[in-house]
Here is the input.
Amino acid sequence: MALRSSFQALWLAETIRLIEQTDSFADNQANRQAQSAQDTLSGRILARAQVIGQQTGLATTLQYYIKTLYVVLAFLVVCALFIGAGMAFTALSQQPINLFWALISLLGLHLVTLVIWFFSFLFLPKEAGSLVVPIWIGLTKSITQKRTHQQFIPALISLCGTHLRWGIGFVVNFFWTMILLSALLVLILLFSWKYYSFVWQTTLLSNDDIVGIIQHLGKIPNWFGFSIPDITMIRQSGFIPMAENTVRAGWAIWLLGVFFVYGFCVRFILMLFCGINWYRYQQSLQLNLDLPEYQSLATRLMPRYSEAEVIDPDYVNYQPNLINEKYKKGIGHYLIAIDIAPDWHYSDDNNVCFLGFINDRQQRVAILDFLQAKPAQKLLIAIDSQRAPDRGFLHLITELAALSQQTAIWLINDGKQYQNWCESLHSLSMIPTQLDWLLECQHDE
Here is the structure.
């Protein structure tokens, strides 16, 4: 059941959606990266999920889980080959071979499980309809243990809905195809190496009933070149096993034909049918954007900008809550002021590209979005050293530094928190500097 990379991305996004029903992620950076990388809501949700998956290790865990699924499936295929060989040996275990016993041994379990799967396919499309899938999932879970997440399978079911039956059908019928192929090959080998005599036995059915059953079962195989024993051969085989090579070969060919058509071909055709539909479904699969969680994300990933609301009247005549339009095509060397009064005068040098103040959430989001789209070469962050370096402040500096090739801190005012700032910046591998650092960088170019 091959999975395309785009399907894995959808699976990851759906897993994160289910996790966020009871938990939450720090997704500010992921949202900004998604907005800069994609234009559509679906694309941004997938991009956001990829960033969160990389940050939390969930993407790597999902890839490991999928690889383990393939490994376990390969193990089950090997088991299927042994099961098929066992079926063939069981069918030919009697001497002479009772034809009805051979048919039940070769086709009985196959037909019973086929009926169960078929009704499950029609009426329980999200259920396995076979022991193969629960065993497959159970073995995968036991192998991955802690390197997995409990929402992976629920997310897959939620993502695919009733269409999951095509994937389940492919796996189940692929497994049975391998069993029956192995049994068919072993039958051919055994018939080629050993003498087998055949006989049919019954208490309730008459000879005419047996003749009719054998001829009807052989009609479709006869289209593929498998001969049907004549009436005389059928009647005589009901009393004693016939030793003639032509009779033995005739019964062997009939048995192979019946098994090939009603066993192997049925499963092979169903495997192809389910596999083609599963592949086509993967090609057209999309996120269900009508889900409440995705609608909530839409307000953050696809914002509808309007006139900025004035939060503090002191800002009315100075700095808007957006990036300075003058520097949107700047040279990539920027000055930013964090939590500083808007009447602060930074420099008379026209070469200073002042990107703006970060004094509220809207300004913060605007500047981070701008730097996400156009990362800075040099970024100088002005900070009032009167203000204590709390965790929120340091986290914002870290976010800004991640969007610049080089970042420096300008501590203004020589305030009472200056020494604390120096210690905090040292923990971030930064040191205080002055405005000249930014200007020298520009003059050097």
